[in-house]
Amino acid sequence: MGHRSTRRELLSRMGAVAALASVPLPSIAVDARPKRLIYVFVSGGWDITYCMDPKGHVPAIEGPEWDGPEDEREETIGSIPLALNDVRRGQVTAFFERWGPRVAVVNGIVVGTLGHPNARVRMLTGTRNRNGAADLAAIAGATHGGDLPIGTLNLSSLAIPGPLAAHTLGMGPRWQATSVMDEHTPIPPAPGATLDMPAYAPDDADRDALIRWREAELDVLRAGAGRSERSVSRISDLASSLVRSERLRGRSEAFGQPGFGLYPSILDTALLAVDVLQQGICQSVFMDTGFSWDSHTLNVVQHKLYNRTFGGLSVLVDELQRRKMLDETLVVIASEMTRMPEHNGQEGKDHWPYTSALLIGGGTVGGQVLGGTDDLLTPRPIDHETGQLDPQGSPLAFDSFQAGLMERLDIDPGRWLPGVRPWRGGLG
Amino acid sequence: MDCIIGTSPHMQPPGPSPRRWRAGGATGVSLAFLLCAACGSEVEDVAPDGRLSPPERAIRISVALRGHRPDLETTERVERDPEILPDLVDAWLESPDFGRVMRDLHNDTLLVRADTDTQYPQAGVLADYSTAQIHAATSEAPLRLIEDIIMSDQPYTRVVTADYAMFHEIGALVYGVPYDPDGPEWQASWWNDGRPRAGVLSSSEIYKRYVSNGENHNRRRAAHIAEALLCDSIPERDIIAVGSVFSFSGGTVTDRVQTDSMCLGCHTTLDPLAAFFWGFQEHFKVYRMYDLHASGIGCEEAAALTDETSEHAFVTDLCYPITTYRPANEDRWSELGLPAPALYGRPGADLSDLGRLIAEDPRFPVCTARNFLGYFHQVRPSEVPSEVAESLGRGFVESGYSAKWLARTIVLGDRFGRVEPEREQGLVGLLTVTSQSYAQQVEHTTGFRWMAVGDPGVCVEQLNCWGAVDLGRSNVFGYNGLMGGVDAMALMEPTHTPTPSKVLAMGRFASEAAGFVVDSDFSADPSERRLLTHVEADTRDELEVRVQLTALYGDILSQRVAVHGPEVDRLWDLFDGSVARHDHPAEAWKLVISALLQHPQLVLY
């Protein structure tokens, strides 16, 4: 028997394989790591008139005042006009009072479709369908996170990792991944079962031996699998996934133990997002608010959704700032659509094919509103270089918005969205 | 045209064997044969024509059609005589495993196994059932109907025209459907609420998952049916927005979508199709069922407060058996000024007509071909080349809409037997084991089903306690989604590539199964063991161990390898090293079996 690799040597060699995976992973100096990303997805369609696109002065638009005007007000905080209600959406007020000067609001993004899945694909990937598409967080993670345990941590099942899935870790709706990262985590067996779980969990020495064996078997598979693009890609993805899974196995404590079968809250999620970035687990995090915003019935629920979500966002940004990570972490908060200007017959609001986004951190020039909508809640034309309203310009489309975010994250948008003009938006 | 898929039931003979599968004359795993040092060798490079060897092809087809590998004897028979493969396929198409695969395939398009959604409460007649049982017994119903149609060789058009449905006892209790307690677990029956008969189109399970909210007026349901059955993704169409064109200028939303030029492109298709679904409740009031029971009012008291003859009969919406369809509402589209029911301009009166119209639609067989081909080749249906889907669709029609013919033709097709294409077309290449298939293979090989209590300690005196769940197939507590499966709520498409989540989940799955099978085998009589039939818990003799390792290769990977070949050498190193470290052969067997259940050739095949 020849020299046996140490685990470190083995992982290092396998890392070289991963670097040859389907996405080129540029060499990055430690002191020049590109901005990290936390993408907070607001699933279901937020009503932007409740917050960042106030329309209380427009008679044709039924905003939050529609079901109770007494506590509603419009106020500008940090140069951002906002719809506020300290009684029903007090967390929104608190968030902007603290962070408004660092927030850039982007209004009037054209999504151009009304179905949730399709709108989600457009807003997250910048493409019209899922063929070969990946979301921004996955692209950022795969592009810049080759040296980390994982490129992107998906804390939401709504992510679209697409062809970059081998660089992402999905946690599952109840963070089930924690119980497979550490095989010693107890799992309650079903009644009548004759064994406890774990029924078997290899120790470190046995695991190292298993890794060596698997690497040898992978070499055999690679030699016999031919050269088709898909075969090469899948073997590369398997090699990359093996490397990343072993890197994660050694860091499982970073994910905490919420307990088998428990749903995490938005606060749990926000704190984990910051933790894993700080510990160098990943380059980007994709998360959602944990709520469905699809208020076809009783749109008034948007008060509560905004309030709870901005409570979580405050914790997220506070933690980033407290740990001195805000300047190097771009936080994007966006929904796949907004809601109609008027209510339907069930006091709800149906879909409207436009949306807004909030950006904070990562060098964002805050205290400004870019783009906008008119008195029919439809996007107004803008200058794509400045982000300012410009009658001679054109509305901001979802793909341009995505391409612009890519530029801000040092990703070549031409590679993922060829032919799409990046929106630069005067973000500094 | 370079037709990827052959249309003859008996495809061209497989190409030359590219790998050295040295088979012996015996069909069993005899000791004499296992000791043959020359009866296997390391895998060599793929054949120049990119075809799989006959045994590899048999493995790929078996996994596709049954979810698990064939046994070693079968792969060796194929090695000796590749001409038997079509007959094997015919036999596999008759197996219950194929029925289960058909359910899995159709869940990827109908998207009804939504276990992360809210399930019917454990109350009233369901008080003694767990939420896991309720979910499985209800959401699976349309898939069970499709399985029954396919396995009984009915034309596939019956999927949308059948005059019966399949019910589990629990589903029958939920909806008040006749059910024979002495009959099979899943049995044919029908709703007694007067709904038209149209196969899965009549199933409440689809409309429980795909609700109609606000002024959506069943359009979401229409979009889902159009995409699942006709591969027409209406919501993918652009809403052109130039300046403020997409705006409202007075009138109701309903009015505007019938007149605004920006809206008509979708709504002239969508709204007439949506009109077929008005008989169903807009959204089933599952949350309010929980509210009612939590309020302490209970169904008996609620019944006394409710006028059963009213249009919105409160108690029958919330108490078992619940009402989910009202024929009186079928024409409500007319009250709202919406278009009359039609499918792409062809009018109909009710769901039965819709089923007939879909069955007659030329898009239906082509879409079915796309869905089947996409599933087996692991590509998105929309990525299947049109000429391939259309050619296959024509053959499907000529076969009398035989789903078995369709599956058979695909898996015996030349392209399905290749790891390397003649020209890149997005099809073929290595396939990745699916979440369902992995769970099936582990269970088939080891007898281990990963059952656990999903919500211990957090579910006391509630109405949605899941109880025992199958972690290999569950999303809400388990690892189906992590291993690439869909959850029909957020994960709407399978992931067909290895991922860290999949590798980690498979690793633990493999270890639990290995622990289970080693412990149970060594505590059983040798004649009753599953895998460890050549050794005892204290066996350390190298030759005996190698014989067992060889047998494991056959049992788990369906491959014959030599006792002193490189594969067994590597496994021996694994075993021997573990014994040296722990002085515990049984633990070493757990390591070996766990490793084999994570073998790269099990993940990619």
Describe, in plain words, how this protein is organized in 3D.
The complex is a heterodimer of chains A (about 425) and B (about 600). Chain A has about 425 residues and is α/β, with parallel strands linked by helices. In chain A, about 30% of the residues lie in helices and about 15% in strands. Chain A is built from 11 helices and 13 strands. In chain A, helix 1 runs antiparallel to helix 7 and helix 2 runs parallel beside helix 9. The radius of gyration of chain A is 23 Å and the shape is globular. The N terminus of chain A is likely disordered. The N terminus of chain B is likely disordered. In chain B, the strands form 3 sheets. Chain B has a two-stranded antiparallel ribbon. Chain B has 26 helices and 6 strands. In chain B, a hairpin with a 2-residue loop joins strand 3 and strand 4. In chain B, helix 2 runs parallel beside helix 4. Chain B is about 45% helix and about 5% strand. The chains are: A alpha/beta (about 425), B mainly alpha (about 600). At the A-B interface, strand 6, helix 5, helix 6 and helix 7 of A face strand 5, helix 22, helix 24, helix 25 and helix 26 of B.
Which geometry of chain B do the CA atoms define? globular
Q: Give the number of helices of chain A.
A: 11
Question: End-to-end span of chain A in angstroms?
Answer: 59 Å
Sheet with most strands of chain A: 9 strands, mixed
- The overall strand count of chain B is 6
| Low-pLDDT residue intervals, each spanning 5 or more residues of chain B | 1-46, 242-249
Radius of gyration of chain A from the CA trace?
23 Å
- Fraction of helical residues of chain B: 40-55%
Please give the order of strands in the largest beta sheet of chain B: 1-2
| Main sheet summary of chain B | 2 strands, antiparallel
- Taken as a percent bin, the fraction of beta residues of chain B is under 5%
